[in-house]
Amino acid sequence: MAFNEFCDPDVDTALHQAAARRPEEIVVATPMLTPGGEHAEHDIPQAIDRARSRYPETRFVYAWPIPVSATAAF
To answer: Which of 7, 2, 34, 33 is nearest to 18 (CA)?
Structure first.
């Protein structure tokens, strides 16, 4: 679990902690269900890009955005 602001750990720290365990893949998810939002569209992908640079042997998957039709069905 990570937070974008106001709480610890931040996204960069959480990704580092997860990648330090040397998994093959890390899946990043957000509770944001619809497109639109600075954190989901910009901040989290930028943190993932930084982690990819630091841990090239680990595959990072960002499970977002969720298709609007799936959100509506939910």
So the answer is: 2
